[in-house]
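re the bet — no i am not wrong, look at it urself. input seq straight from the record:
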Amino acid sequence: MFGLGWMEIGALIVIALLVFGPDKLPQVASQAGETLRNLRRMATNAREDLRAGLPPEFSNFDPADLNPRNFVRKHLLDDVENDWNGKPRELEPATAPHTAVAEPVDELGYGELPPYDSEAT
């Protein structure tokens, strides 16, 4: 819940008991719950109003895509995550056939050093 462990939740409950006391704590928790329900309702209504006001071209619009983290994950990292999860990638067809021809490899003799290009390193 919100990235909190049991120790943090327990510490928050103890602090809430010390600050509000055992008599007012149920009332404060009730008010906090009502506030969260109202915020969720307002967010849902705003999302529905936004979708209703958009033209049909944007029927698949998701407001969560406006978050940069979700945008990057959806558009840039999908291929990487699919590769890691073992799902097959859809490959786009090549526009031009691959015409590169491999150069013949000269075999090295015993004790012979391979060619070295000092500018390549």
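see?? The chain has three helices and no strands. told u. also Residues 31 and 37 are 10 Å apart (CA to CA). so pay up
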